[in-house]
Structure formats: C-alpha cells, structure tokens
Amino acid sequence: MKRAVPLAIVMVGGILFIIQYFIPHQYSQTLFDYYTEWVPIVGAFTVILGVGSLTRLHKHKIKRKAPNWPYSWAVLIPLYAVPLFALILPEAIGGGMLQSMGGERTSPGVFDFAYLNIQVPIQSTMFSLLAFYIASAAFRAFRAKSVLATVLLFAAVIVMLGQVPIGELIGKWFPKIGLWILRYPNTAGKRAIALGVGFGMLATQLKIIFGVERNWLGGAGS
Amino acid sequence: MLRKLSVMLLLMALTAGFAYAQGEEAPPGPDAEQPPEPAEEVQTEENDAAAMSAAVDGEGMRPPHSIQVSDWPDDAGDALSLTFEPGSETPENLSFMGYAIYRRTAGEEAMTQVGFIPTGEGTCFADGYDPDFPVEPGVQYEYQVAATYINGAEVASEITPAQEMASNQWFHTGKVRVLIGCIIFIALILFYFHAAQRGVQMYLRPIAGIEAIDEAIGRATEMGKPILYVPGLSTISDVATIASLTILGRVAKKVAEYQTPLLVPNRDPIVYTIAEETVRQGYLEAGRPDAFDKDSVFFLTDSQFAFVAGVNGIMMRERPATNFYLGMFWAESLILAETGSLSGAIQIAGTDAVVQLPFFITTCDYTLIGEELYAASAYLGREPKQLGSIKGQDACKGIIMAVITVSILLSITDLIAGTQTVTWLKDLFTMAIVD
Predict the structure, then answer these.
(1) Which residue in chain B has the smallest CA separation from A118?
(2) I need a labelling partner for B434 at 20 to 30 A (CA). Which of A153, B126, B133, B174 fits?
(3) Do B371 and A60 touch (CB under 8 A)?
(4) What letter would DSSP give residue B168?
(5) Which residue of chain B has the CA closest to A126?
(6) CB neighbour burial string for A135-148, b if at least 16 within 10 angstroms, e if fewer
(7) What are phi and psi of B255, to 5 degrees?
(8) Helices marked H in B25-87
(9) Nearest CA-CA distance, residue B357 and chain A, Å
(10) Tens of pLDDT along B64-79?
(11) What ipTM goes with this model?
C-alpha cells in the first residue's frame, strides 16, 4: 500500500499530463492551472522540514561540542530571531518585508539594513570569486598535454582574441574565425548534447511513470 | 526629417484651410456630390475633427469595413481572430494613429475597447490575449473597428456581429508531428523495456565517469574520509535532480556497505526530504539501517551563493576524499568544483546544463555529459528494464542521426545539382513553437 498508492498517483498523473499537452480545451487548461497552483503550496510546507533539519544538525553540533560548534549559534540565532522579531516588532525589523505585505513603512527596518549591508555584499563576494576560478580553470584546461588539448588551446586563443579589439588589430580574420568556431562546431556540439539530454529526460520520465525507476520513492521504493 | 516636417506643415495648412472653407461655404444642393458617410460615429463631438483628418487624405471619410471574425484555432475557446479591410486611411497619413477595436456582447449597449492596432501593423487582431478583456467560449460578440486620428477623432465601421463564436478544441492540430514523434519514441523505449525483460542481451558502452563511482567510494573508504554528494541546486521538478537522487540511492548503498561517512547538503527542502529517504533506503538495502546518520543528509539554505559558501566550508573543514556533483547547476558549478579540486578530492560531476559542462570538465576528474547522467542509474543498477530504456534512447538517437545524414546528403546533392529536394524534409521537421 505504501508503495502502490504513490506509484498509481504518478502513473495516472504522468499519463494524464502527457495527454493534457495535446488538449487545448478549457477543462484541460483548468486542470493544469490547478496542478501548478498546488506545487508551490506543497513546497511551502516542506520549508518547515528544512528548518527542522538545519536546527537538528546544529543542535547536535552544539551538544557534542563538535569542531567550530560556536558557529552553529551564528546560524541558529538569526534563523529564529529574524521571524520572531518580525512578529514582535514588525515596524522596527520589517522594512522591505513589511512593505511587500502591504504595510506602512516609516523607516528602513533592521531586515533591510541586514539584507543590503550584510547579505548582498557577501553574496556578491562569493559570485566575484568566479572570475579568479575561471582564470585558474582556464590555465589548467589550456595546457597543451595532448593533440586534442592543443587544438582546444588554439581554438580558445582564436575565440578569445576574436572577442576583443586587439584581435582585429592583429588580423581582420580573427573575429570571423572566432565567430565561425562559436557558430558552427560549438553549436553543433551543444545541439548534440541537448538532443541526448532530451531523450534522456524522456526515458527517465517514462521509467518513473511506468514504475521502472522507484528510487525517488525513498523508503517506499522497495 | 525635413521631408516629414514639410509634409506635416502642409497637412496642417490644408486642415486649417478646409476648416475655414467649411465655415464660409453654403450647404451643398441636393444634386451636389456627397462624400461617403461613415457607418457610425463613435464620438459625436469629434466628428468635425475626424472629417478634417480624413479630408486631409483627400479620399473622403470611408471607415474600415468587411469585418471578419473567426474562431482562433487550437485553443481553449478564449480567443477570436478578427480581420478587416482598411477604409480611406493610409499609413502614409501622418495624422492616422491606428485602429481601435471595440467589442460588446450581443444585446448589450456599450462598446468596450479591447485592443489597438498601431498604424502600419496590419489589419488583423487576436482578441482574447489581453487578460483584462477575456473572450468567453460560446458567447456571441459584436465588433466595431475605428480608424483613430492624432486629434482623437475616430471614423468607425458598422457594428458587425461575429460570424463565429469562440469554441473549445479537444486536440491541438499544430502538435500532430509532436504526437507522432512521441508515439514513435515511447514505442521504441517500451519495446526495449520488454526486450530486456525477455532476457535479450544488451551491450552498453562503458562510461568512465560511472565506472569511477565505485573506485571513488573505495578511495574515500581507504582514506577514512567522508564522501560529499551534492544533488544539484534545482528543485524536484527538474529531471536532472530526480536522476541525481536515483544515483544517490546506489551510492548510499555502497557507502553503507563500506561504512564510509556520507554528507548530502541540500538547497531545496523537498529534495532534502527525498534525499534523506533515499539514503535511509540505501542503508536499509545494504543491511545496515542502524548505521544511517540522520545528520548526514541536511538542508543548508535556499540561497544560491550561501549554499555554495556552506558547501565550500564543508570541503575545507571536513576534507572529503570524494566529491559528487550530480544534478542541475548554475553559476556556482565552477566555484564548487574548483574548491573541491583545491581540497585534493577526487571529483565526479554530471549535469545536463550545457553551459556548465566545460567548467566541470576542466576541474573534475570525471564528468557525466548530459544524457550520461540519466543513464548512470541504469548502469549502476544493471536491471534489465533500466538497460532497455538506454537501448531505447539509443534507437531514438539512431533515427535522428539517420535523418541528419540523409539531410546532409540531400543538401549536398541540391548544392551540386541546383535542385530543391531537401525542402520537403525540412518542411516535415519544421513546426511553429506552440505552448
């Protein structure tokens, strides 16, 4: 029963929505709209489980005095303090949150301050690391260790020089060849991967719909 | 620019002259030639202005006419197609703004403007696409089209009852080719499912990344270090995430057999709950349910870069011997993989995000490219039906490759012989993108 019910729901739902794609009728559209409305509602409830998991993990760390356990307080305190203060002192902490809920905003809230001055700069810092990592990854990728790696190196140099003004100064053909590499061999490769991905998705979905693949059921899978 | 200005000045002069003459002239006699009358005047107080603008054209005041309304095909009965013939207005007339489309339900008095076609954008209108003015199926509507001028004047057509009502359709005719394609591919995959079940031996080419999974788990066991498994950053509605969770089940079973610690950080709460169940099941299948640590699968955060910071922190603190990045990744792929590379871990990645593949290929030891991610579960499980699905995919790709090869050959033939034999093939596979 634990396994049969979810499998039946998936099979009926899967086949139903394959058919739904070909039916433009109002009933079919209404069914689809109801379904898409339910997905975020179910998702919202699982956030509680997520917060529970985070709490349990850090509670154990603090209890066991695991390495770096004081940092767990840095996770748990804001995790509960922000929503708690938002309930007790909505105007002081609310800011943008309160405004988005249609409330009156008299001054920038603590939430606004923390978001704009702590979270946004930290996220930007993480993202900017990408520039350095691209450089180091490119250095590793472009080492001419084999014939294929050498071909890759030459192609990369041509494409890179074709994208910058100095490339055109070196030779008028640089941008043209760079563009040709991007448009033809590169696009062909990408399309081949996309085609394989499409069939892979189709096969995976069929396996799930027909109950061949059951690992997604977790504990009920076997 | 100067030409446009001079035309505008000329039009203004003509309009002023005409207005002056209207004031001076005596009413024409019964035999005098009358200009054609507009079918209906929407705004009475603006009639004079409309007359002025229309007269500037020198073609009288003939309104748009011959309104044809038909049901929009292949829809949920929520759209109508409207076409009409233009009146005396022309796009060259600078005072002409476009056509206002009015609609009312049969039996009602007031007309409501449901759309506007700017000048030069044709005489066709799809009614029902504006959510503020929905079209109901089975309702009789009446339409009126008014040529609108810069001074606000409108020269309106007759009110015309719609020849057709919007109706629901039970099949989208524009998707016939998609349906045929789906039937062929589903049939092929099902055929190979059954062939595999009947015991037909199927050869699958080895994939280095998948074969390395066991080796990577073994390495972590030997080193006594944990294994990090990131099931992507997407939600459960992404097929790549489902494929990743399937592989996680297999990895968890191996990990349980070898008693190696496993760490599974999650970004999505739904994925977290399923991942936890999957890992628990893996331990159960390995006969070690007691070894399952609930804290090994955990929710980190739903913020993209905060998640990356968290995972990178785990890599630098816990120093896992093996990192798996399987699922859907975005800009964080390189940050994760490069940090993992710096920590000295053996890394196996797999994603269907074409843009992220180069990053994984450069920084990871093994990369499952696109469909290999979906095939991994079947490779690891070696169950007949799973293998059948892989062969089914291969058969589908075979068909596509055959079509591409034939197309290339026909294109070359056309190029040499100057013929157009490839056109029918192109038409067969070309279709409009429909929802």
Answers:
(1) B306
(2) B133
(3) no
(4) B
(5) B305
(6) eebeeebbeeeeee
(7) -60, -40
(8) 47-57
(9) 10
(10) 999 999 999 999 999 9
(11) 0.89
Residue A166 Cα, gap to closest chain B Cα (Å): 25
The torsion angle over the Cα atoms of residues B68, B74, B75 and B78, rounded to 10 degrees, is 10
Q: Please give the span between the terminal C-alpha atoms of chain A, in angstroms, as a whole number.
A: 12
| Nearest CA distance, B87 vs chain A (angstrom) | 36
What does the buried/exposed string (b/e) look like for B362-390 if buried means 16 or more CB atoms within 10 Å of the residue's CB? bbbbbbbbbbbbbbbbbbbbeebbbbbbb
Rounded to an integer, the average pLDDT of A144-159 is 90
Are B276 and B252 spatial neighbours (Cβ–Cβ below 8 Å)? no
Q: Which residues in chain B have their CB less than 8 angstroms from residue A130's CB?
A: 331, 334-335
* Partner residue opposite A219 with nearest CB, options B182, B281, B352: B281
Task: Using alpha carbons, select from B348, B243, B406 the residue that is nearest to residue A196.
Answer: B243
Which of B374, B397, B403 should we substitute to test contact with A (largest number of A Cβ atoms within 10 Å)?
Answer: B374
Q: Please, where are the H alpha helices in A101-146?
A: 110-114, 120-141
B338 and A137 Cβ atoms separated by less than 8 Å: yes
Q: How many contacts (CB atoms, under 8 Å) link A and B?
A: 204
**Which of A31, A216, A217, A222 to probe the B interface (max B CBs under 10 A)?**
A216
Are B359 and A200 in contact (CB < 8 Å)?
A: no
Separation CA B350–CA A214 (nearest Å): 21
B58 burial via Cβ count (<10 Å: 0-12, 13-18, 19+): exposed
For residues B157 and B146, what is the distance between their CA atoms, to the nearest angstrom?
A: 6
What's the pLDDT tens digit per position in B262-311?
999 999 999 998 999 999 999 999 999 999 998 999 999 999 999 999 99
Cα angle, residue B430 at apex, residues B424 and B433 outer, rounded to 5°: 160
pLDDT confidence bin for B60, thresholds 50/70/90: low
Contact A218 B280 (CB under 8 A): yes
Please determine, for residue A204, whether its predicted confidence score (pLDDT) is greater than 80.
Answer: yes
CB atoms within 10 A of CB B280: 20
Is the model's pLDDT at B28 over the cut of 90? no
Q: Which pLDDT tens digit goes with each residue over B200-256?
A: 888 888 899 999 999 999 999 999 999 999 999 999 889 999 999 989 998 999 999
Calculate how close chain A gets to B424, using CA atoms only, in Å.
22
CB contact under 8 A, A207 and B362: no
CA distance A213 to A206: 9
